[in-house]
């Protein structure tokens, strides 16, 4: 079956993660994504290794695993946009595109005549999504922005890490470039919204998307708490500011997570733990009371949880409909029966390496399923084919 975005043409001028994450998702949904890369170098992440992808013989290919995570379902065209010929070729491609995606610094593409106004003049229906660190306006607009910097500046690191006073306390970034990933998702949402607007009005438009804006927007309940009280939340490790117990606990052989979200779940946990009296204790019987008496309750729970293994607790608490779970390393994630049942590990056929592993798109459609048609491309692998299909040119383009 055709993908949901079958027939959509996306010209991807972005690199690293936020932009490529968005264009990969569009490609998963069926769009024809053309990735423009620098001749001889390509996307920066091609060399962000080790680790490297292995070929069919188990040998390193010098193709970084990082690049593979965000570049399937794309075709690569090598164009030097610093030359007049390269700029002209990109404009030809943009004239045929539905979407242009880029993450250059503010004003960076205007020098080449590849900014929105220039391309809009030749393709008024164009959706042009620009991803920057800080947006097109404001005192920081000219600055380069990277995920790590934004996690610090945007407040996420002030909320992440062990509490003040504990061993190892201090600000901590998230273990993946979460701001880049979230920005890629917001970019995809924005592009789809703009396409629907074009469907009803015939008009293209410009999308100004900033990593900092995304980071602040994603502060969610923590931002709402601050705006309501004027008090800045502080790091709490794995504990939750307004739900108790909702954190990690030690077991006889490791750790587990309790994610108790209501009083009924807490009562069932207490009974399973052999302490039904906790559920009727006025200090613990309701969530607001448990939050107020966190310092008393958590040590009591820790004394109880160390009496069984993680597996024993999970089996017991799942039978009582108490949300709990292990803290898995990635080798355990990909052998988890639910992860395997959902097919979250995929292998995409590669014309040079045999196949490359990856993680499935989480979207499940009943009528227009996601497909994995193209492994992450070699640099410039499709230059001639793209020019033939998009521009109907049979000659070598550059």
UniProtKB/TrEMBL annotation:
**Alphabetized InterPro entries for the sequence:** CoA-transferase_III_domain (IPR050483), CoA-Trfase_fam_III (IPR003673), CoA-Trfase_III_dom3_sf (IPR044855), CoA-Trfase_III_dom_1_sf (IPR023606)
Q: Name one GO molecular function term.
A: CoA-transferase activity
User: Which SUPFAM superfamilies does UniProt cross-reference here?
Assistant: CoA-transferase family III (CaiB/BaiF)
Q: What positions belong to coiled-coil segments?
A: none
Q: Out of the domains of life, which is the source?
A: Bacteria
Q: Which UniProt keywords apply?
A: Transferase
The protein in question is named CoA-transferase
């Amino acid at each position: 079956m055709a993908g949901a975005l079958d027939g959509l043409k996306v010209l991807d001028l972005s690199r690293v993660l936020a932009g490529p994450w968005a264009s990969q998702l569009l490609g998963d949904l069926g769009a024809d994504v053309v990735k423009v890369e620098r001749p001889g170098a390509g996307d920066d992440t091609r060399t962000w290794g080790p680790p490297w992808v292995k070929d069919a013989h188990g040998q390193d290919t010098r193709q970084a695993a990082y690049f593979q995570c965000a570049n399937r379902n794309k075709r690569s065209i090598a164009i030097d946009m610093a030359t007049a010929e390269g700029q002209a070729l990109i404009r030809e491609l943009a004239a045929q595109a539905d979407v242009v995606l880029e993450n250059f610094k503010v004003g960076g593409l205007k020098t080449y005549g590849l900014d929105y106004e220039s391309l809009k003049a030749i393709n008024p229906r164009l959706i042009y999504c620009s991803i920057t660190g800080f947006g097109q306006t404001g005192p920081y607009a000219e600055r380069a922005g990277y995920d790590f910097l934004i996690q610090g500046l945007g407040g996420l690191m002030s909320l992440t890490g062990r509490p003040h006073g504990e061993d190892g306390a201090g600000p901590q970034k998230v273990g993946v470039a979460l701001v880049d990933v979230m920005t890629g998702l917001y970019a995809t949402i924005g592009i789809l919204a703009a396409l629907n607007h074009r469907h009803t009005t015939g008009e293209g438009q410009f999308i100004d998307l900033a990593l900092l804006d995304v980071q602040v927007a994603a502060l969610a309940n923590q931002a709402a708490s601050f705006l309501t009280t004027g008090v800045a939340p502080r790091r709490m490790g794995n504990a939750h500011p307004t739900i108790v117990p909702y954190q990690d606990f030690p077991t006889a052989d490791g750790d587990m997570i309790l994610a108790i979200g209501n009083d009924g779940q807490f009562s069932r946990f207490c009974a399973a733990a052999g302490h039904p009296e906790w559920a009727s204790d006025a200090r613990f019987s309701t969530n607001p009371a448990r939050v107020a008496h966190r310092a008393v309750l958590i040590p009591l729970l820790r004394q109880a949880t160390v009496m069984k293994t993680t597996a024993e607790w999970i089996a017991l608490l799942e039978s009582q409909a108490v949300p709990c779970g292990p803290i898995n390393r990635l080798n355990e994630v990909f052998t988890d029966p639910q992860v395997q049942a959902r097919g979250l590990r995929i292998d995409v056929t590669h014309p040079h390496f045999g196949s490359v592993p990856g993680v499935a798109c989480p979207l499940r459609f009943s009528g227009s399923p996601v497909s994995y048609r193209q492994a992450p491309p070699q640099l410039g692998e499709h230059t001639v084919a793209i020019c033939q299909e998009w521009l109907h040119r049979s000659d070598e383009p550059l």
